[in-house]
Amino acid sequence: MFSKVLIANRGEIALRIIRACKEMGIGTVAVHSTADVDAMHVRMADESVCIGPPPASESYLSAPSIIAACEITGAEAIHPGYGFLSENASFVQIVEDHDIKFIGPSAEHISMMGDKITAKETMKALGVPCVPGSDGGVPDLADAHRVSDAMGFPVIVKATAGGGGRGMKLARTKADLDVAFQSARSESKAAFGNDEVYIEKYLTLPRHIEVQIFGDGKGRAVHLGERDCSLQRRHQKVLEEAPGPSITPEMRARIGKTCAEAVAAIKYSGAGTIEFLFENDEFYFIEMNTRLQVEHPVTEAIFGVDLVQEQIRVAAGEEMSLRQENLVINGHAIEVRINAERLPNFTPCPGRVTQYHAPGGLGVRMDSALYDGYSIPPYYDSLIGKLIVHAPTRKEALARLKRALGEFVIDGIETTTPLFHALLQEPAIIDGNYDIHWLEKWLSANG
Ligand code: MV4
Q1: Does residue 114 lie within any of the structural domains?
Q2: How open is the CA angle 350-239-364, to the nearest 5 degrees?
Q3: Angle at CA 354, nearest 5°, toward 58 and 30?
Q4: Any bridge partners for residue 231, and if so which?
Q5: 379 and 241 together in one domain
Q6: Which protein residue's CA is at the shortest distance from atom 6 of ligand 1?
Q7: 26 in helix, strand or coil?
Q8: Engineered SS bond to 217: which of 189, 223, 269, 346, CB 3.0-4.6 Å?
């Protein structure tokens, strides 16, 4: 096992990883920018190293600074958290070239899934159901029309280098295709330096269902069910839950087995998420994320596992402790993302937190790096906390969420908590009857 791990991240996820390390008897090294000298992750780690000025490009994204911090402190492994360098294959290669372990999948798997066409071709070949669409890239307009006419409209043009909603263009009818195709290509070229695109049938009212998988890197893998992450605004998740309210045990077992077998076949190592659109009781693969996700705690709650400790074990070369037959769902979990944002426009709202009181009690987990008097710097993501509730049933989880939100105190800044009080009154939320467009429509009607 490692004796020291460096956490190449900040905020709540850095704390999450430090906590896992402490319980395993592993020393921790925090890295931070000059804007984060007073941050909780710096205080909670055994050691810390300042790696640069406030802009992430010069600190949390600086590979040379992070490698230097490892060498100075003698850290043997790096946990990247989510965002920043977590899905950067060249960074993983640099880390390995310095004989440091990257706590995550191989550079090859990150590259494979980072290219959305390769990801889809790989998954399709492994028997994972995919959205109908072009076979690989679509090189020109003539090809785009041929593929789309055969499939029928609407279609969506996606950048192979995109993902998470970036570089996508919808063509509702044939008349929209030329503009959609050309703009997807040029925007992708400008954003990613890659203009390769592919085309899919556009699914009109799906849910976003993602399957959590975990591989040992040697050909064994398990699944930990799904999360429903359909409640999103501008491709940012707002609330996530597990299990998915629309997924039956039979569907879960079938798609879970397909996903676990697929990642076992490629000898995937560590935590990963296979994203699907789910419509008319069918799953359609869209993307795979090769990192620990923000919403991993809802899966941890219902399966009673520590995904970060498992990541560390597997990266250190120990046996994966997860066994499919032991992974049994217990109850229901819901996470809400607390952002430092002013409603109704979700305007970032950094500043000084004058009072902070986290909710607690049975089945309540608050992952946050906030404390009384902390000043939220303006340079980073506005996620400042995640409130996760767990209860025997979905109905009880909703009641627990309402209770916990009522205990939450955060003064000095504005947050997204009022949104959750309002959402908990909505029949669609109470009944679990929402799709990927529900929240945006609701916000337009309730702004
Ligand atoms: C789609 C789609 C409909 N049909 N693909 C958006 C983010 C990226 N991960 C994939 N996305 C979508 N792909 C097909 N073939 C609709 C979306 C989409 C979406 C997906 C998940 C959650 C929220 C969304 C909001 C708008 C569009």
Answers
A1: no
A2: 85
A3: 35
A4: 239
A5: yes
A6: 165
A7: coil
A8: 269
d(CA 177, CA 171): 5
Is the pLDDT at 268 greater than 80? The verdict is yes
389 bridge partner residues? 334, 364
Segment 123-179, tens digit of pLDDT: 999 999 999 999 999 999 999 999 999 999 999 999 999 877 788 999 999 999 999
Q: Do the beta carbons of residue 340 and residue 384 sit within 8 Å?
A: yes
Q: How far apart are the first and last CA of the chain?
A: 51
Structure tokens at 238: 């707002």
Phi, psi of 84 (to 5 degrees): 35, -115
Closest ligand 1 atom to Cα of 133: 15
Residues with CB under 6 A from ligand 1: 131, 156, 164-165, 200-203, 208, 232, 235, 277, 286-287, 436
**What is the distance in A from the centroid of ligand 1 to the CA of 169?**
10
Which residue range is the domain that position 358 belongs to? 207-446
Residues designated as active site: 291
CA 178 vs. chain centroid, Å, equals: 32
Do 285 and 356 fall within a single domain?
Answer: yes
Cα–Cα–Cα angle for 198, 203, 208, rounded to 5 degrees:
100
Q: The whole model's pTM is what? A: 0.97
Is the distance from CB of 230 to CB of 277 less than 8 angstroms?
no
| Residue 211 scores a pLDDT above 90 | yes
On the CB side of 316, CA atoms within 13 Å amount to 21
User: Which atom of ligand 1 lies nearest, measured to the CA of 440?
Assistant: 25
- Residue 405 falls inside a structural domain: yes
* Cα(165) to centroid(ligand 1), Å: 7
Inter-CA distances, 430 with 242, 259, 280, 402, 418, Å: 14, 29, 21, 11, 17
